[in-house]
Amino acid sequence: MPDRRNTLVNTALLGLLVLATIISLATGTVQVSLFDTLRALAGHADPMTDFVINELRLSRVIAGLLSGAALAMAGCLMQTLARNRLATPGIIGIDNAATAFAVASVVGVGLSLAPSAMALAGAAAATAIAFGLAGANGTRGYRFIVAGIGIGAIAGAVTQVMLSRVAIDAANAAYPWTVGSLNARSGQSVLVLGLGLAAGYLILMSLSRALNTLQFTDAVAIALGTRLKATRIIGLGLAVMLTGLAVSVCGPVGLIALLAPELARALCRPGKVPLTAAALAGASFMLVADLLGRTLFAPLEIPVGIITAIVGSPYLLWILLRPSPRSLT
């Protein structure tokens, strides 16, 4: 039987996401009314409006929707697996490693794979190293987080070294990958992200009961019939996949994976892993941040990763300074 509170929360977040999508499509250097925006989406607008909405803005909005949802779901998964609110892909270095590998592909340092494939490889490598350094604790405890922070710092340094040793044109082409941006994203990468997000979501929904039990101790989870090792491996693999695919589209957009799950947990009924609510909140956060970056200082555009860092950093400090809830360390 569906939970009424969670259903209401998901419905409200979906409504906010639809509103944010329409406003983002309508707002920019060329202002379009909400009515004309809807007409353009239905294919009944004049050629100029149709070009602005469907050719210039729609692909960017779709990239923001998918990448924000993927990062938020990955963050929610990592927090659940580690039982720690700080265990998000950005904080434990997965974002930076994926970015380093993607940049290596863009600037051409002898690696010819597509940025999406390279980002996935980087995310997987960072997770494997952090997991190995954590030892018997696996993804649990602060050792995993500290190892991830160190890996992220190294990956960030490697990215800067690569950018400093290539021609200025190549460095400029790779720059958006280092700060997080939705500008001129590859349609192929967005398509791959969409397929990966859909597949990951379906798998996670089938594992929802097992994921809910991971919020308890291992003994309780096993007593409830959860196959801990298999659930953790699948969950970690999906978190890596979602992060790598999202970074291949938008770069390292920080703190979406922290803010969206926090909002979802605050709104939804305790005891559940709010993957759907987190995905909807993450997509909304990404669109709003991108909208602010495009319009606050127009015609100058601020990359979405910088906006999320400015907004999310004070909240991260607040999490570090306040007492933690019992459900997550």
From TrEMBL:
Chief localization:
membrane
User: What InterPro entries does the database record attribute to this sequence?
Assistant: ABC_BtuC-like, ABC_transptr_permease_BtuC
Could you confirm whether the keyword Coiled coil appears in this record?
no
Presence of the UniProt keyword Transport in the record: yes
Q: Which UniProt keywords apply?
A: Cell membrane, Membrane, Transmembrane, Transmembrane helix, Transport
Question: Per the UniProt entry, what is one GO biological process?
Answer: siderophore-iron import into cell
The membrane spanning regions, by residue number, are 58-78, 90-111, 117-137, 144-168, 188-207, 233-261, 273-293, 300-321
- Locations listed in the record: Cell membrane
GO CC annotation: plasma membrane
Membrane-related topology note: Multi-pass membrane protein
In terms of Pfam families, this protein maps to: FecCD
Which molecular function term from Gene Ontology is one that the record holds?
Answer: transmembrane transporter activity
Q: List the Gene3D superfamilies hit by this protein, alphabetically.
A: ABC transporter involved in vitamin B12 uptake, BtuC (1.10.3470.10)
Q: Record's family?
A: Belongs to the binding-protein-dependent transport system permease family. FecCD subfamily.
UniProt protein name? Transport system permease protein
